[in-house]
Amino acid sequence: MNLTNHFLVAMPGMKDPYFQNSVIYVCEHNEEGAMGL
After folding, report:
1. Is the pTM higher than 0.90?
2. Do residues 24 and 8 make contact, with C-beta atoms less than 8 angstroms apart?
């Protein structure tokens, strides 16, 4: 599954301090890795 040009939205119950309340735009996603903002 390629997630390029998609948003990742943290679920309300997420407890991870780095991604809690986050929305990430995936700029690039391929076999070499992924990059998001």
Report:
1. no
2. yes
